[in-house]
Amino acid sequence: MRSHTPIEVVFDGDCGICVACVRWLQRRDRDENIVCVPSSSCRWTEIESLPFSETVLTRDTHGEISLYSSAVAVTLANVPGYVGACGRTVLALNTIAPLRVVNDFCYRLFAKNRMRISAVLVRLHLLESGCLVPELPSTGA
Q: DSSP readout, 1-16?
């Protein structure tokens, strides 16, 4: 059996899709090799320079931080079975710069539209709750 490296995953805790993905991940992480933390609770010292609102982030035990499609691949690579194999395949493909650019573009496109996607999935009863949209401050009018 392959030894899994414990990693930390920082995600948008206000995003319905993100929360659903974390729940899905936790059900499959039988060995508890992955710790998921909402970005609002993250205490990384690098927090000021990291784009928490744009991407999921991972940090492995060596302190290496991954973003965008690589963060998803690192996370999946630490799950047993076929899910881990898929993650390791994407990690290998991401070593080829043009493929990483395409994968990151697809990730960013999905992330940019996650609130819309979440709303559709809620309407179709495929997702429990959608992304929380921050309330705008009152104009006092």
A: -PPPPPEEEEE-TT-H
71 vs 11: CA distance, rounded Å: 10
pTM for the model? 0.78
pLDDT at residue 60, rounded to an integer: 85
> Quick one: how far is CA 47 from the chain centroid?
16
If one counts the domains in the chain, the total is 1
Tokens (6 digits) for 88 = 């390791």
Residue 40 belongs to some domain of the structure: yes
With respect to residue 129, please indicate whether it lies within any of the assigned structural domains: no
Residue 136 has pLDDT above 60, yes or no: no
Pairing of strands 34-38, 7-11: parallel
Measured CA to CA in angstroms, residue 15 lies from 101, 116, 133 at distances of 24, 11, 9
Q: What is the mean pLDDT of the chain?
A: 81
